[in-house]
Amino acid sequence: MSILSKPYFHDEAAAFAHLEGVLWPEGPTCPHCGNADAKRIKRLEGKATRIGVHKCNECRKQFTVKVGTVFESAHIALHKMLQAVYLMSCSKKGVSAHQLHRILQVTYKTAWFLCHRIREAMRDGTLPPMGGEGSIVESDETFIGTKPGFKKRRGGGHKMVVLSLVQRGGGARSFHIDGTNKAEIFQALRNNVRRETKLMTDTASYYKGGVGFKSHEMVNHEIDEYVRGNVHTNTIEGFFSIFKRGMKGVYQHCSEKHLHRYLSEFDFRYSNRVGLGVDDEMRADRALKGVVGKRLTYRA
User: Fold this and answer.
1) Cβ neighbours for 45, distance < 8 A, ≥ 6 positions apart
2) Structural domain of residue 158, as residue ranges?
3) pLDDT tens digits, residue range 102-118?
4) Where are the beta strands (DSSP E) in the chain?
5) Which of 16, 89, 129, 146 lies 20 to 30 angstroms, CA to CA, from 51?
6) Is residue 281 part of a domain?
């Protein structure tokens, strides 16, 4: 059987049961008042009742597992949204909205909005510092797309700038920054990397002068130096290769307004990869756990 043959990808009741199992492992919780007492929450099962509806006897309000998540008020069947979450979670370079619109048989506009909702679920809002004693974090930046109001020209002045931090044997964290400004890059490093970390970069001018970490090693690409012992930035270059293949080959265009969500998507998949013991199903479930407490409207 294919993984997509599972009941919760095709049956609405099974889809609600699966999402409830992921988000409510200890039983339902009322999103309106926070009541988690199973004796004070009742599942409504009348013939005219919608699938998955519960009623809280504390606040007297009805709810489903979708309330208070990015799936709330979605006009698409939950089992189709779970298919989209799985496909976006297991596709290394992403899945285009056009592809999902054909697979799920929904409009392109609906698929595009659903993709952004799922990216919002993948966004990690906690952001604890990376690295630590004995850890190595690589930092680098890349250029992509075109800034609003700029015309294409030689060099990277017209492109959007992405700064990424990748911990060897760990996760990735990316930011859209205004430019290759030393102060902004240093601030991002200090806010996101522990001081006991070994930092590795290239010899770009904005990295010179030390950044206050346990050590700071650089490789000089200008003289074709790419590896010196364990000093290199090959890990982050590998991350960028996946990111650019996805952005250019799958998504093809991204506005500056939405770039941060695409970065969250690639960070999420890289930080929950097979090399860290996370398979496709586990990654999809982790994405589902991120839907809680987030709302994204089409207007926004």
Assistant:
1) none
2) 136-254
3) 999 999 999 999 999 99
4) 41-43, 54-56, 62-63, 136-144, 160-167, 172-177, 198-202, 215-219, 227-228, 231-232
5) 89
6) no
